[in-house]
Amino acid sequence: MRPLVALSGLGSVLLASSAFAEEAKKGMPQLDFHNPLTVSQVVWLAIIFLALYLMLSKWALPQVDSVLKARAGAIAADLDAARGAKEAADSAITELTSATQAAQTTARMEIASAIDAAKAAADAQLATDNARLEAQLAAAETRIAAARASALGALREVATEATGVVVSRLTGGAADPKAVDTAVGSLLAARGLA
Amino acid sequence: MAAEHTIDALGQFELHPVLGAVGRSVGFSQSSMMMVIAAVLTIALLVVGMSAKAVVPGRLQAMAEMLYDFVYKMCIEQIGEEGKKFFPFVFTLFTFILLGNLMGLLPFSFTYTSHIAVTFGLAAMVIVLVTVVALAIHGLHFFSYFFPKGAPIALSPLIVTVEIISYLSRPVSLSIRLFANMVAGHVMFEVFASFIVMMAGAGLVGYLGGVGPLALNVILMGFELLVACLQAYVFAVLTCIYLHDAVHLH
User: Which helix (H) or strand (E) holds B41?
Assistant: First the structure.
């Protein structure tokens, strides 16, 4: 409404001047209802407006509507597809996580059982090795004892012989084997070697 | 020049028959011609613009879609779900007034919305439609519209009189608002333009002085573009509000 206010201010000044003298006589063409063109405008308005309304409502606007609907449908379908894909991806991730967990558990159990088996095998091996070594040790000790005994047996003979030889050299006659044997035996017994 | 000292601000609104003898015989003036051009442009925008049917619209298609969307939203927001039925009518009304206002700003054209006969014809269409719709939906109950619920009975003669006057003044205010805005803008263009010509008659100083009204007219053009769109919107939105009243009765 501002141009109207401005106009009324301007108009009151200008209309008073002689420049608008003719204007005031003629009046506004819009209010000249004796002019058939002024009234015929309304008839033409009715015809043109009706034609425009019919063409728009039956022909032009449904075209826009169909394009907008098609676009909205395409967008909705795309969103649905994206939502479906996201759900599939989510379930795949869940599946992957559970599968990974299951695999880890199985692997852990297998490792534990393998370690246990290895330990048991090692223990068994150790036990047999120990037993074998014990047996070898025992056999060796027996052999040592036997060797020692046989060596000690030989010692009396050698000592008797040596004593006989020493006595015969010292005395010049043959020594009494019985006395020598007794003496050697008593001496060996005194040293703990008999 | 004899016309040097007069300003013919209203001559631009005079009607002349066009299309020769045929136009004269059926009273076809330049005003009606502009109406036909407006109708053709509206149809062309929608049909040519939407011919691509692109999912991602081009410029013309985007313009057609925005116009469609703008009026459609206005109908739904103001009238409600029933607004879909009235959308083609409101769209026709809005584009017809908008193009009339905007094309009127082009040089050598004519603004049919600056004629009270045209704007009142449009407003009469609106008020007849509103009344017919209200009677069709609510029957005789429609007349309760003129007496708001809960008002004191003693005041009923006064209230009903005021309500009826306000209802009947709708087409008057609707038509005069648009008419007056268009006339005021175009008269101001003419007056300032006449000032430029008058100044030019005064020699070099006048040429310099003519820059003032010229600048004013440039600014006024921007303002009138706003008014052209605003008044088309106001007309359409008031139509929607009246239709809302007709459909819902307050």
Answer: helix B30-49
